[in-house]
Structure to design on (153 residues):
């Protein structure tokens, strides 16, 4: 019987030690869980702040890239517009030259004098007036006035 009692006491002590060990381990697991939760909160805030910063950086890079793209597209469109405008102006100049040439030919056929013809006639009148004045002995001032009157009409 003593051995049974000793055996029962030994089992009780072992059970108590096992219960205490389980209790200690449970307490450690609980504390480890609290520590992990606390660390996760701290790290979570850091991760969140890091993600926000990376998001801001990405947004800034994207905006910069978009601005550069807009500038490139604007430059390309401006160059194309300039090219088209120059081409249109060249065509307009050609059309204008053709029109002027045809009008000049038509006026020439009708016998209408050109601006150049009128200038030559004016010069010739001046020269003749000077020659007449030299022959008649009149002053050159009268010739200038006489030449100026027909030109004004």
């Amino acid at each position: 019987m003593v051995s049974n009692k000793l055996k029962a006491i030994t089992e009780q002590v072992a059970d108590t030690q096992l219960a205490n060990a389980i209790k200690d381990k449970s307490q450690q697991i609980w504390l480890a869980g609290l520590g992990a939760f606390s660390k996760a909160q701290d790290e979570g805030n850091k991760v969140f702040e890091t993600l926000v910063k990376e998001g801001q950086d990405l947004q800034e890079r994207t905006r910069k890239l978009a601005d550069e793209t807009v500038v490139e597209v604007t430059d390309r469109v401006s160059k194309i517009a300039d090219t088209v405008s120059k081409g249109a102006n060249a065509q307009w100049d050609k059309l204008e030259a053709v029109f002027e040439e045809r009008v000049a030919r038509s006026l020439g056929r009708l016998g209408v004098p050109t601006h150049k013809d009128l200038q030559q006639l004016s010069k010739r009148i001046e020269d003749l007036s000077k020659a007449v004045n030299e022959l008649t002995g009149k002053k050159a001032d009268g010739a200038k006035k006489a030449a100026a009157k027909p030109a004004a009409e």
In short: The chain has two domains: 2-112, 113-153. The two ends are 160 Å apart (CA to CA).
